[in-house]
Amino acid sequence: MMNWMKLAFRNILRNKRRSFVTMVAxxxxxxxxxxxxxxxxxxxxxxxxxxxxxxxxGHLRINKAGWHTKGKLEPEKxxxxxxxxxxxxxxxxxxxxxxxxxxxxxxxGTVSNGSTSTVFIAQGIIPKDEVVIKGxxxxxxxxxxxxxxxxxxxxxxxxKDLANYLNMKAGSxxxxxxxxxVGQINALDMExxxxxxxxxxxxxxxxxxxxxxxxxxxxxxxxxxxVVVLLKEWExxxxxxxxxxxxxxxxxxxxEIRTWKELSLGYxxxxxxxxxxxxxxxxxxxVIVIMTTIxxxxxxxxxxTKEIGTLRALGLKFKGVSTLFAIEGAILGFxxxxxxxxxxxxxxxxxxxxxxxxxxxGFSEPVEMxxxxxxxxxxxLIICFxxxxxVAAIIPARGAARKNIVDALGHV
Length: 412
Fold this sequence. Notes:
Elements: H1 2-12, H2 16-54, E1 60-64, H3 67-70, H4 82-93, E2 98-112, E3 117-125, H5 127-134, E4 142-145, E5 155-159, H6 160-165, E6 173-179, E7 185-196, E8 207-211, H7 212-219, E9 226-231, H8 237-250, E10 255-259, H9 260-263, H10 267-303, H11 305-313, H12 318-353, E11 357-358, E12 367-368, H13 375-401, H14 405-409
Parallel strand pairs: 3-8, 5-7
Antiparallel strand pairs: 1-9, 1-10, 2-3, 2-6, 2-9, 4-7, 5-8, 6-7, 11-12
């Protein structure tokens, strides 16, 4: 085998310029695919954090069975009573993989500054629990004023575009109105403690955040719409959903549990979009690499037709000729992949030092572009490029190997 490798390597060095161009093409293609995969790998992690931490979805959301289909029409029938809520929190909190379980309630209504009114959507949360869910997520921290707290029950946070529309700021007073669970209109005075950026253009003009007790008072209820569960590891999401669903149903609580992937408005759509772009780019790059390798090996075969005829005359069989060129292709693919790893690492290091900034679709402010180093993907790419280069080399080699020996020896 070593003799085959040495012979193949010497053949590659016969035309150094052509081999170099082929390895450059393979290396650039390798680096392009590796870098883009590193980008979407980082994007997936970011989208997951945005959903779990930024949107405050947690890993799991527990609702009463039927809430998803009928809860908006008959909310009073599909909310947990105070006793049920306390029982759920106790049962969920017994699991070692659970960091936190907290009740929440959503309110839709009208907010007014005294002269102008507009529609709002608010999440009623327990402030100290929300701090745990958000972690070190920064986008949702108030840009003005302070966060809502457990002491100032009537204090709220307002998204910046909504505050701008109402000409309100931290310290401003207003009125919020909403329909109670029994259909009556209720209104409460409120004070804006902070103005924040949701990080999304589609929600900055309508979102607010209430103290959980304030939201209950506005809806005139002691019930909870849902219980949000935060886990230690996101990989445990599906396993914990099945476990908690069985546990709660065994305890007599009829509920449904949805994961952060199912609840997030953007994660699955954005992931599908990025996956499709990756497949498209990778397909184009691989076709270019294959065609370049076929062209290189085809030219080499034309120049070495007499040599192939001589080898066949000396007893080398069809399989042997194909094997020789396959090894040459594999070496080109491997050396090109090594060049690709070097190029990938250089570009990755530059981006880590000087990350470019851009505004993704739907975001309200620029973010830095980061690329993850994903070793398993680089290893997979090496295997992929070596195999593709072997296949690309065998395609023209098969035709030359089948050529009549006499014709091959007399080839000009």
